[in-house]
Write a structure and sequence with these properties.
Blueprint lengths: L1 H29 L2 H10 L1 H5 L5 H13 L8 E2 L4 E2 L3 H37 L3 H27 L1 H11 L10 H4 L4 H28 L7
Antiparallel strand pairs: 1-2
Helix pairs in contact: 1-5, 1-6, 1-9, 2-4, 6-9
C-alpha cells in the first residue's frame, strides 16, 4: 500500500500543474477572444482586403479549433475565392489534432486527480493531499519559467512547430500574416492568467476537502 500511495502522490504533484496548463492552453486556443484581439491590434484583416470582419474571422478560427467546422477554409466573398491554401489547411488540421490530444490527456489527468483525492482521503491522508497540491504549485512555477524561456527563443519554437506539423509556410500564405509569431506571447499571457485561476480554484477546493473538522466547529 505504501508503494501505491507514494506513486500516486508523486503523479499527483506532476498532474496538478500540467492539468492547469493544458486547461488554459485549450481555452486560449479555442475561444475567439485571442484571435479577435490580434486582428483588432494588427488591423491585418482590413489591410489584406479579405472581405470579412475581424469578428467573423475570429469566430471562424474558434469554431474550427472547437471542431464545429470540419474544413479549414473561408471564402472571400468579394473575390469569390478561398482565402487559405491546401497546405495551410493541413497545418491547421494537425495543430487542432495536437490540441485534441492535449484535451484527451487533460481528461485523463482530471480523472486521475479525482481518483487519487478519493483514494488518499479515504485513508485520511489529508496532509499528504495538501502537501501534494502545494508542491504542484511550486512545480507549476518552474514549468511557467521554462515555458517563458522557450517563448523568449521564439524562432526556435516556430521552427520546431513547423517541423513537428510537417509544413513550412510560403510567402503567399495567409495564416502566418493573420497569426504572426507574436500571438504565441498573447496566448501564453492569457494561458498564464487562466491557469493561475484554475490553480487557485483547485487550491480552494483542496483546502475544503482536507480541512480538519474539530470537535466544537
Amino acid at each position: 500500500m505504501k508503494i501505491i500511495n507514494r506513486t500516486l502522490f508523486v503523479l499527483l504533484i506532476l498532474t496538478i500543474p500540467l492539468s492547469a496548463i493544458l486547461t488554459a492552453v485549450n481555452l486560449s486556443a479555442r475561444l475567439p477572444d485571442i484571435y479577435r484581439y490580434e486582428f483588432n491590434r494588427s488591423e491585418i484583416v482590413s489591410e489584406m482586403g479579405l472581405g470579412v470582419t475581424n469578428d467573423e474571422l475570429a469566430r471562424f478560427f474558434s469554431e474550427y479549433m472547437l471542431g464545429t467546422l470540419e474544413d479549414f477554409q473561408y471564402t472571400d466573398v468579394k473575390r469569390e475565392r478561398p482565402i487559405f491554401g491546401i497546405g495551410e489547411a493541413v497545418f491547421m488540421d494537425r495543430l487542432r489534432s495536437l490540441l485534441n490530444v492535449s484535451l484527451l490527456s487533460l481528461a485523463v489527468m482530471v480523472c486521475f486527480i479525482a481518483f487519487t483525492y478519493w483514494f488518499l482521503l479515504r485513508q485520511d491522508r489529508k496532509e499528504a493531499v495538501r502537501f501534494a497540491y502545494r508542491a504542484g504549485m511550486v512545480l507549476y512555477a518552474g514549468l511557467a519559467a521554462g515555458i517563458a524561456f522557450l517563448l523568449y527563443k521564439r524562432e526556435a519554437v516556430t521552427r520546431s512547430l513547423d517541423r513537428f506539423l510537417l509544413y513550412r509556410f510560403e510567402e503567399t500564405d495567409v495564416v502566418p500574416q493573420l497569426l504572426p509569431p507574436v500571438i504565441l506571447f498573447e496566448v501564453a499571457a492569457v494561458a498564464a492568467v487562466v491557469s493561475l485561476v484554475v490553480l487557485l480554484i483547485g487550491y480552494s477546493i483542496t483546502k475544503r476537502l482536507t480541512r480538519v473538522v474539530g470537535m466544537f466547529y
